Amino acid sequence: MTAATHSTLFPRVPESADAVLDGLDPEQREVALALHGPVCVLAGAGTGKTRAITHRIAYGVRAGILQPGSILAVTFTNRAAGEMRGRLRELGAGGVQARTFHSAALRQLQYFWPKVVGGDLPRLLERKIQLVAESAARCRVRLDRNELRDVTGEIEWAKVTQTVPADYPAAVAKSVREAPRDPAEIGQIYAMYEQLKRDRSVIDFEDVLLLTVGILQDRHDIADQIRRQYQHFVVDEYQDVSPLQQRLLDLWLGDRDSLCVVGDASQTIYSFTGATPDHLLNFRTRHPDATVVKLVRDYRSTPQVVHLANGLLSQARGRAAEHRLELISQRDPGPEPAYTEYADEPAEAEGTARRIRDLIAAGVPAGEIAVLYRINAQSEVYEQALADAGVPYQLRGAERFFERQEVREAGIALRGAARAGGNDSLLDDADDLPSQVRAVLSTKGWTTEPPAGSGAVRDRWESLAALVRLAEDFARAKPGAGLSDLVAELDERAAAQHAPTVQGVTLASLHAAKGLEWDAVFLVGLTEGMMPITYAKTDEQVEEERRLLYVGVTRARLHLSLSWALSRSPGGRASRRPTRFLKGLRPGSGALGAAGAGGGGSVERGGGGRRKRRGPVQCRVCGATLTEAGEMKLMRCEDCPSDMDEALYERLREWRSDQAKQLGQPAYCVFTDKTLMAIAECVPSSDGELAGISGVGARKLDRFGADVLAICAGEEPGEEPGGDDEED
């Protein structure tokens, strides 16, 4: 991290309203000054849209034109709302409400429910999937785990599109939506689900919006009360608004037009949840006098990355494509995107892990690297490959930073030290704020050097190290600050969910990566059937898949790698093809014409000479060809009978647990459960037999092979074969 970066982590509050405008480019400044009437900001990826709208709000507040309490800014995630609150606080515009649609509606519903209905608001159902399962059972419909998740998603879609159970089959047909079950069955389950909620006096998250809409429609006095409080509205990610959210927004607004919306139709990737870009695309039709500003200066990505992103959209079709924004990179040139073709998926994962390890060795922080894939099921092979390569990683969607146990404990310790002041002997030799923090956190597990491995011990250390770095940045920005000031800053950040960076490669789906960015991004599994996904049938669905890849590309600041595998498993038929979206963009895939040319770079053949090709893996019980990763590890079909030595399996698990503790890694980083099962079934007696088990690579054979073979032979790991018979 550079000194220049440090100075921006704790910026000084601007001294005046005009100072709020400093540093904005001409288009961002135009947004900030457009404080009246409807405003539509069309903002491309990396163009500083959050900067533009937060400076707009702050300028209005600091200039006395807008009252903080009269502004409601809404977005789609708690993280985005927290970031917006944090930025507004830094600009001297505290007191502005920045919330998600659901959070704002829930607050209003809780306040007005006793007045409208009486009594307490019904209990909010945190997870609806269990109630959906019960509803299906009562309808005598059997659903497996995946179908249950899909049907739950269908109910959510129906509710945000304001579709009642009886109308669901017709709505599905009209939307050309492919239902996971017979629509009539889903309609029945949906109706039963609603009945059970009523019987048990519970509501779900969609009900929060529906009930708020109902109250505002029926009670004009309450609608007027809300409109008197909130007179100015800002909506971020407007391309993701659902019909239900738009209805709520209309009711909040009434007949006024003090609305600023921000969005990019080319980043519409949540239509399966009911989101639609139509409200953004129709904004100028609904508001003919609207001020429209386009942000196209890309400050995030290099010209090479932006060139590929523009090339992707140049091939797009449909209404959203007609409104695409041609980005212009503001950064210095960087490396060309890398395209790599692998023989199979394990080779792709191993090759990706090697490249990541090389980047880290070259100085790129692990926390600034991401591996992005189409579906979450793809993560396992990359988790294993990164663990094998000794690279720390974190799965996107894990526990929030300030909710982690070690961070909460660290906060308590820092707060106690701040209260004790000079009476804490722990701080006797600590001359400045960073050394005080290091002294306190050393009692919680922080050390100057990180522990080996990438498991729970390393995760804890990374959390504490992030707090140490934060303290160093804070002291650099505010030289006179003490421990109590830092504790106050941590409390503010926890309230805004503004977490410091934890060092670990991010593994995430493309959908989960929306709104994030990294120095290096690896887009993996880019084959037909995965990108676009197999079930994308219509032109509109395929175009959304293209936009999803566009979102992935534009997450990268500097390094971008795109890869695909020709077969699923080692030795499989090389029948896969790279995604159609890269045609004319990746080298050797045909010309596209000047408008969409993808630029330089070359396609590499990954894994050449480094991985032995094996024939198809066959079940050792029935002889069937295996395709599932878990079955290939076991070398048998899941349904075929197991001849596993249970006692051996338990000994292997105990040994693995000990190894994991010594290494400070999760148990699966030693061997996965499936690999241990395969070992307990095969009972190998030599290096060759052990190496033939999927999940036992050369590195693990060298590291753990002797111990595993000893356990399989009934001996203690670490003792010499036949050691009991030797004389002293």
Descriptive report:
The chain is of the alpha/beta class and 728 residues long. Helix content is 45%, strand content 11%. The chain has 29 helices and 17 strands. The protein has a seven-stranded parallel β-sheet, with helices on one face. Helix 13 (243-253) links the parallel strand 6 (232-235) and strand 7. The radius of gyration is 28 Å and the shape is globular.
Summarize the structure.
With 728 residues, the protein is α/β, with parallel strands linked by helices.
By secondary-structure content and strand pairing, the structural class works out as alpha/beta
Characterize the biggest β-sheet.
7 strands, parallel
Oligomer: single chain
Mean pLDDT: 83
Which overall shape is indicated by the principal axes computed on the Cα atoms?
globular
C-alpha termini separation: 58 Å
The total beta strand count reads 17
Number of helices: 29
- Percentage beta strand: 5-15%
Q: What strand line-up does the widest sheet have? A: 13-14-12-15-16-11-17
The residue fraction in helices comes out at 40-55%
Top keywords for this entry?
disordered N terminus; 728 residues; disordered C terminus; alpha/beta; 6-stranded parallel sheet
Write the layout of secondary structure elements.
Blueprint: H1 3-9, H2 17-20, H3 26-33, E1 39-43, H4 49-62, E2 71-75, H5 78-90, E3 97-100, H6 101-116, E4 123-124, H7 129-138, H8 145-160, H9 168-175, H10 183-200, E5 202-203, H11 205-218, H12 220-229, E6 232-235, H13 243-253, E7 259-263, H14 278-281, H15 283-286, E8 291-295, E9 297-298, H16 303-314, H17 319-322, E10 328-329, E11 338-344, H18 345-361, E12 369-373, H19 379-388, E13 393-395, H20 405-420, H21 433-441, H22 456-477, H23 483-496, E14 505-509, E15 518-523, H24 539-553, E16 556-567, E17 603-606, H25 629-634, H26 646-663, H27 673-682, H28 687-691, H29 698-712
Helix pairs in contact: 3-4, 5-23, 6-11, 7-10, 11-12, 11-13, 16-24, 18-19, 20-23, 21-22, 26-27
